[in-house]
Amino acid sequence: SKKVDVLGIEFEHTTKTEIIYTLEKRIRDNKKTFIVTANPEIVMYAQRDSQYKNIVQSADYILPDGIGIIMGAKLLKNPLPERIPGFDLMKDLLTIANKEQLRVFFLGARENVLNKAIDNVKHDYPGIQIAGCHHGFFNEEDPEVATMVQESNPDIVFVALGFPRQERWIRNNAHLFQQGIFMGVGGSFDVLSG
Ligand code: UDP
Question: Residue 100 maps to which CATH number?
Answer without folding.
Answer: 3.40.50
